[in-house]
Specification:
The protein has 201 residues and is α+β, with helices and mostly antiparallel strands. It is built from six helices and nine strands. Strands 1-2-3-4-5-8-6 form a seven-stranded mixed β-sheet. A two-stranded antiparallel sheet has the order 7-9. Helix 3 packs across helix 6 and helix 5 runs parallel beside helix 6. The termini are far apart.
């Protein structure tokens, strides 16, 4: 018997929470979001300030390791939730969904649908993902967080930082982050990023 709470009119955005029952002891979903015309000039987007999707009744095991920051396994509904947010954007006329991934795995999990706002960030992540190709996601995200990936030229640890990403909904916004001009800028920036796993020659 899921229970839904909605908190409106907050300075940090509007918050949606879904609990497993009316007792509100097991939190399944927490979304804090707002709309903005500032973060992506020329467009109005839904900004996700915080998103939590978890199953407090599930357990980690030898084949299901926790990702950085996880207290419980995920719900496995990230794609479905993003589809829901796309419908929300279409209903209220927003150009897309905007968020800043807190860690490598958050960005990697949604790569098939989203793009970084800036093409140089897209090139940077592509180089990072290539360096970590074949590494399980939980391990890869931990390596990035703990300095296990270094810049090839200097040997200095790569530090993850917030690089804004968007899921475009409108045609104009989709062209902005997927079009020929964007792809050309990604290609031009790709030579600036070369990483290695720590310990590799």
């Amino acid at each position: 018997h899921p229970t839904v709470d909605v908190a409106l009119g907050q300075a940090v955005g509007q918050t949606l929470r879904v609990w497993a029952s009316s007792e509100r002891r097991e939190l399944l979903v927490e979304l804090r979001a707002d709309r903005s015309q500032r973060v992506a000039p020329g467009f109005e987007v839904l900004v996700i300030e915080w998103l939590l999707l978890q199953n407090p009744r599930a357990e980690f095991g030898p084949f299901r390791r926790p990702l950085p920051g996880q207290k419980h396994p995920g719900l496995g509904l990230l794609k479905e939730f993003f589809s829901f947010l796309v419908v929300v954007c279409e209903m209220i006329g927003l150009d897309g969904v905007y968020y800043v991934p807190s860690s490598y795995h958050v960005a990697a999990q949604s790569r098939s649908k989203v793009r970084f706002v800036k093409p140089e960030h897209e090139a940077e992540f592509a180089a990072l993902a290539e360096t970590l190709q074949g590494v399980p996601l939980a391990r890869a995200s931990t390596m990035v967080a703990e300095g296990g990936v270094v810049w090839a030229e200097s040997g200095q640890p790569y530090q993850w930082r917030g690089l804004p990403m968007v899921l475009p909904v409108s045609v104009a916004f989709d062209e902005q982050v997927r079009g020929e001009t964007y792809q050309q800028a990604v290609a031009e920036a790709s030579g600036r990023f070369e990483f290695e796993q720590r310990g590799e020659a």
